[in-house]
Amino acid sequence: MMKRRVVVTGVGMVSPLGLDVPKSWEALLGGVSGIGPITRFDASDFAARIAGEVRGFDPATFIEKKEIKKMDPFIHYAIAAAQEAVDASGLSIRDDNATRVGVNIGSALGGLTIIEREHAKLHREGPHRVSPFFIPSSIINLASGQVSIRFGAKGPNLAPATACASGAHAIGEAFRLIQTGGADAMLCGGAEAAVTPTGIGGFAAIRALSTRNDEPTRASRPFDKQRDGFVMGEGAAILVLEEREQALARGCVPLAEMVGFGQSADAFHLTHPRDVGDGAARAMQQALADAGIAPAEVGYLNAHATSTPAGDAAEARAIRQVFGDAVSSLAVSSTKSMTGHLLGAAGALEAAITVLALRDGRIPPTINLDEPDVDLDCVPQMARERSLNYAMSNAFGFGGTNVSLVFRRVANG
Fold first, then answer.
1. Is 76 a known active-site residue?
2. Is 128 a catalytic residue?
3. What is the mean pLDDT of residues 159-182?
């Protein structure tokens, strides 16, 4: 079967580094950390008291005031990022094409803020006080649902919940839909707003979070010997993917072409990868095979690397296994060192960052990398200029789910 070509025509971001793409990208290239003390709630009794919070976000900028209360913040972030992505793409969704435009936005945890609020209200005031908006404001697929309603997109409407691979899975499956003719355009990515008492408390309970509370900007340190866990982040990232000929016909200049998607399972452990990283390696190998390229053709890899001791080491081994001798010319960075870990939105944010790196020929750094414990070029501390032809983004999740995405610079044709 002949597969149609797919291009990225728009990107939107809401992140701990900024409320849009220009601000977030500038901060990433500047090596700025978005991590700070938690301000959303009193975290003084928590083991981890730091996070990458979205700051200064006003949902009323994007959403009618009466509608705001019907949505958890993760949906607010998704709508804001989708609006930026659609505006950037120039895609017009009309009656004559609406059934060919779909939405696929994933999340790991969905509406924790609303769940906590309504649970407390139930026990404090009784069942009659539970909001009628509780369910539709908190379930994971309502980010896709609300974005679909906002833009009138009547095509496939999906919402993967594959832990920290959710956003990357959403992009990969959207890519497949367009390739195989199931849609002509997709708004896809991830959204998360889990900086809440339950979110922080739950991850702290399994000792996944950094407790470097006195040095928040230095707490997220992927690939560094002194890493002690990840830092929670929040936000959303949305890509507009389109069938290439359609995009070119309307005069669009794509940001990049998407060419590869690989996915696998570790089938090993709830929260830990195998030491050898074989599941991650298989996802990367599949993505390269899908793209039809050799490992040596990839110039940049945005690693999943969350800053956990076991996870970073396993991914580094997987990268070395897949890239072999070509690893010496591969630049690998973890932008979670600046954004923290956005859980279900992480893979989408990092895919968007990978697209921007291709577009601009600039690789964001891994900050806080003082004592590397992996034999990789991790782009320490400072961004790097480099002309790139292909770039890869990894995203892995609890349950052993793995995704790799490959993008191509549009100048390659």
1. no
2. no
3. 98
